Amino acid sequence: MTACGSAAVTNPETPSSAYIHVPFCQHRCGYCDFTLVARKDHLIDDYLAAMKQQLATVEPGTELQTLFLGGGTPTHLSIEQLRRLFSALFDRFRLADDCEFSIEANPLNLSIEKIDFLNQRGVNRVSLGVQSFHSEILTFLERDHQPEQIFEIVQNLQARIPNTSLDLIFAVPGQSLSDWESSLADAVGLGIPHLSTYGLTIEKGTSFWSRQQSGLFDLPADDLAGSMYEFSLDYLGSRGLQHYEISNFARPGFECRHNEVYWTGYPYYGFGPGAASYLNGVRRQNHRSVTTWLKHVAAGESPIAEQEELDPESRAREAIIFGLRRRVGIDLAEFASRYGFSIPELAESAIESNIAAGLLEQTETHLRLTQSGCLLADSVVVDFL
Ligand code: SF4
Question: Which CATH class is domain 316-385?
Answer without folding.
Answer: mainly alpha
